[in-house]
Specification:
This protein is an alpha+beta fold. The protein has one domain: GMP Synthetase, Chain A, domain 3, CATH 3.30.300.20. It has a three-stranded mixed β-sheet. A hairpin with a 5-residue loop joins β1 and β2. The protein is elongated, with a radius of gyration of 22 Å.
Length: 128
């Protein structure tokens, strides 16, 4: 199976889920700021890993969001099946995308390291 097909399916599922979350899927357990970051489909198209971020991103809040997404998994899958024409609609598995949180930690550490370093000294040029 060409790599391009999985990429097209990933993009189609991402767009379908984004539309469903925006207009159809309403669960009070979902946070106000909830974003899909990416969808990864297995090569056999049997499973789709759906990654998301949210604010606040505390562990307790993430767990509550995962419970809400798991309880609505059947509905979400049926909506994807209606919007994306595939012989078999992949099973949806949700994951919190920790990449953004890790990136922010790394940037803070780099900023702290730069602040503790002495400023670079410029070599003096002789007057001619």
């Amino acid at each position: 199976m060409p790599l391009h097909r999985t990429e097209r399916v990933e993009e189609a599922i991402y767009e379908a889920l984004a539309e469903v979350f925006l207009f159809t899927f309403k669960d009070p357990r979902l946070p106000a700021v909830f974003n899909l970051t990416r969808v990864k489909v297995t090569p056999d198209l049997q499973q789709a890993k759906v990654y998301f971020t949210q604010m606040p991103d505390e562990d307790a809040d993430v767990e509550e969001t995962l419970v809400a997404l798991d309880s609505g998994r059947g509905f979400l899958r049926s909506q994807v099946a209606q919007k994306v024409r595939l012989r078999y609609t992949p099973e949806l598995v949700f994951y919190f995308d920790r990449g953004q949180r890790q990136q922010e930690k790394i940037e803070a550490l780099l900023k702290q390291a730069r602040a503790s370093m002495p400023p670079p000294q410029t070599p003096e040029t002789p007057n001619e």
